[in-house]
Hints:
The structure holds three protein chains of three kinds. Chain B is α+β, with helices and mostly antiparallel strands.
Amino acid sequence: MFDVVVVGGGLAGLSAALRLAQQGRRVAVVAKGLGATQLTGGTIDVLGYAPERVDNPRRRIPELVREQPDHPYARLDLDLVERSLSWFRSAVEPLRYAGGLDENVLLPSAAGAVRPTALAPASMSDGNLRRVPRLLIVGFRALKDFYPAYVADNLRHAGIEARASVLEANPRSGEADVSGLVYAAALDADAAFRRVLADELAAVVEPGETVGLPAVLGVDEAPAVWRELQERLGAPVFEIPTLPPSVPGRRVHRLLAAALRDAGGRMVVGAVAVGAETGNGRADALVVQDAARRRPYRAHSFVLATGGVASGGLELELDGTVREPVLDLPVAGMPDGAPFSPRYLDPQALAPVGLAVDEELRPVDADGRVVYENVYAAGAMLAAAEPWREKSGDGISLASGIRVTEAIVERLS
Amino acid sequence: MKRVSTEVLVIGGGATGAGVLRDVAMRGFDAVLVDRADLGEGTTGRYHGLLHSGGRYVVKDPVSAKECIAENGVLRRIAGECIEDTGGMFVTTPLDDLEYAARFVAGCHATGVPVEEISVAEALRREPRLNPGLSRAFLVPDAAMDGWKTIWACVRSAQEHGARAFPYHPVDRILRDGDRVCGAVCRDEREGHDVTIEARFTINATGVWAGRLAELAGCPGVTVVPGKGIMIATNHRLVNTVVNRCELPGDGDIIVPIRTVSVIGTTDAEVDDPDELEITRDEVQEMLESGDRLVPGFSSSRQLRVWAGARPLFQDEKAAAGDTRDISRGLALVDHVQRDGVAGFITITGGKATTFRLMAEVAVDAMCEQLGEPRPCRTADEELPGDSPDGHYWLGSRLAGRERTMRDDQLICECELVPRRRLEEAIARQATDNLDDVRRVLRLGMGPCQGGFCIYRATGILHGERRLDGPGANASLLAFLQERWKGVQPILFGDQLRQARLDDWIFQGLLDVEHLPGDRPPEPRSREVSAILHASDQGAG
Amino acid sequence: MTAVRATLDHCVKCTICESHCPFSAATSLFPGPKYAGPQSERFRAAGRSPDVSVDYCSSCGICTQVCPQGVKIAEINSQARAALKQEHGIPLRDRLIARPSVTGRLAMPLAPLANLGLRVRPLRVAMERSIGIHRDAPLPPVARRTFQRWARRHRAPARERAVVYFHGCSTNYYEPRTGEMAVAVLERAGYRVLVPPQDCCGLPLQSNGAFPAARRYALRLAQALAPYARAGHDIVATSTSCSLMLKREAREILGLEEDDDLRVVSERTYDICEWLRDRFDEGTLPTDFSPLPMRVPYHAPCQQRGHAIGKPALDLLALVPGLEVVELDTDCCGVAGTYGLKREKYAIGMRVGERLFRLVRESGSELAVCDSETCRWQITHGTGVRAVHPIDLLHRAYGL
């Protein structure tokens, strides 16, 4: 018997579980697979666009909440957001995340867009375009997931001085197609390769330049790899996250998973939550399918953090209905008309669909009544947000993860 | 104003036009082809890829059936690489008329379409996903034909004989010299200026747009009714044989395995404008449910995208029997001398992709007759150029090829196994900034992720290869994203919706493409397709 | 088998599987699970696998476990490998090492000689050159007598309840002591242990792509155990690989979903730690453990994690006073059953296991704990440290 069972191993689920375990609770995370942390760029987005670029989330969030009273931030006040950011920074302390709610950092995306975010790890902060750096954007010949000339070109069109170069350094020499993960593993383990990279870069970089390269500077040994490179170069260096597999995302996941393990939490990966045993307005157990059978996982409280449509936490059927497949919770925000617009960049009517929740983040039905008194929801499954257009996903996940733990602990005691 | 002088101007770059260009060139005429967009952007690029055995016509249209089986044999011989020998089946599902099977078999015998009955158990062994409630099953020599590969192979062949092809050259005016058509004025969309093409003879091979073009030539009222059909591609091949319901042809009664997907088709609705083809969710739903009859679970399978094409249905009553020949053959050749008193101009329309070579032969024969220069057709004798020594295309060819190049070449489109060198070659040969053009010849972005990963990579490569500036490359990226979205959006649910959301994360969340600089379209570039274009696949070589 | 292939539809190309595949990280000969599984499967028709590189998949199953969309990646790879082998044939070596019960039976009468031969360098080199088993591959010495023989002579104490023990080839021919300890612990837990005649589950045959033979073994085993399952007995196993085979792999990968015997057996199959933990949860497990003042590293084998039951060994060992078990942050030991024994794959396997070996050595412990026999042999081979099944520690703690 656990105190809490969390379903979903993404940022929201892991944060909630870790926080609970840190407070001495018996927690289990049941995850169908590994979560979306592995796909994130490694920055923590709180609010980037609403719909114009947000420079000061602290000011803009309350305005957003007035404009969109159903938005998740309506239930997650600034104080909570700040607490959760602070908690996150300490949970992944070796990565030295910095930033806050007062001014979004502006980092180049892997396409060369100027992308706002709230927290960035140390290995990315030197890319803050507010400092108007002179940039050398560098790629690797064998890495197909990054195009420095394209990035530099777009940055120049945004008024940033930037030029590009391609490095030949290759951990699998002779191979044309090497993934970012292989670069990262080599930089972790092979001091000679780190030197080769640094030397090649040193021959290209000019005084006064800041070097931007794809985010491959190690997983286990990050940010030591980044620091060593900076020292060798004598120039600021920053990472630019690119297509999945995300090395920075993996760093975050590893630290959170290890911390959960060290705090005594259990994580069962590859187990699918298929239903629940419920009664009297409570959930008594989560029914989980393992390799051979269904087992009940009994707990005092349950957190559903299975993500939105992207991870199957919400499913859109052919007939147009949206279901929440684990507990069959009522889904809010269904559009009246077409779910999608024919224009790709338009807001998509279906995107804000999700679970409506009460103050404690417990899912409610259309009349606002709590469905199960001991079931909570966190992360991308919350209704009324467009986390990727707004660049708000991480803030919502972290803050809702922490909020849920506070609500649960209060009830447990 | 650029001037091009040639003997024969072919208007329309679908299978018919490409076939005509080849035929004309092989008969020794200097020839030029123009199309308003990329070659194969029209109907040929929008069908399911069936190379008919004729089985679908043996009962209702035996003449077409005979034509199909004859051309089936010819194309297998000359267009090997463009064709996958999937074989075909006609199966009687529980909802089909049991009587039809006997008529079907009799019809096959009468028309010379090879047919062999197999046991239902054997049919299910070959195709485990078929409806276990089948009562009868027959094998026929259906096959799958890649429309774009075929078109480009014909064009390449034509180029080897000295012809030229100009995509993105819409016709503004047809030039008349009294009662003769003597060429056309086109707009070179990439360079941004007009091109005058002077020709002795002009062949209108614009398919479903034939009426509009004939009107430009001063031959109004050629009635070609667009017959809209929708098609849906499944994420992976649910069947590896062409499967037809053994019934009179109807909606959603055929599933064609084509390259890495299977395509179900189709519907038949007369519409007004072949450029305005609406797809409704209801149509999609019905089509998916039809699929369930052949393959249970079809409708809950992952669907990649839906699209529509417009068949050219020739219904010209103005033409007297003597003006239009071979209308009973499904193809329509309009001799404008008889019909309109206009010389140097013929229209070839109707028909189906399977008979494109025959249509071309008929058209070029008519042209030769009008010119008084009988030259024999040899298109059935000579193989289309290709790269692969393996003969027919087979599904595993790209995978086998990749085993050999794994270390030397980057995989750009992983879903469809498109390596970097091929992409760079295609961009160069087609001299294009439009990734959709590249898609047609390489299948870039046509797999499960619909460009989620490869669009960014291809844009980065395009930016370098074509020396674009940032905003130019951005415009290509956004245009291709919109293109992909167009076909995905009407059929988004389940797995494909999850895919789309991941793709959204990549483009909007991670790359923030919405906030890239600039919004102007790509600069025009030189447009003539110069050197020999490799129509074939990576194949075995 | 169509069911496994159909799961490729869930793939959204997210590459999370690739991020966790230890084999594609160690060698470029394996293009990765996303590539070899759902991606290449779209290019395979009628069981034709033109991609030889899929043979470098170890079938560790980590990819399937981490896939957030439910693609059965390792299973797709296994089926592709079988198609490959069907087309190209199965080498003699693979046919030999895939039949541990046969090699066990053959070697046992000559045990001392056979085991000596394993250590004679020139013989090992000759074996490598002739049939392709790497000269340094950790081949286990065969035991003097089978576990079955011990079980037949063992006087089972009277108990109200009974449980069936599926011992597997490793226990029978190579590590009968593990079986003896398992029986003792189960008896201590209050059960009479039934050991029906049984043979190989067919897993190594499956991993080597020999599906028809694998099916025969799996179905024969299911037939032997089914009567017990139907009579209401649980079936416990000490090999997490073999029990996973019975729980789901045989049904999914070999396409045996329709077999009723296999179905009832799989519903009743438990890993021994999983089963004992359930007894603890019910309150029927004796917890009068003596202290074991030790600090030992624990490695959860890939196929143990494939059960998706958590790590019950840790939950059980946590009940033993004084015992500190350190859960290693590792994925795979590299042997992957028979993969790491092969000449062309040995080095890859050792590279994959490097991290685990380092962590075990750094622990300074004289003992490592691991639920799978082939992993134990690999760990010992890579570190010199003795490796035991968790049941060994429970056995000690019970004072048996």
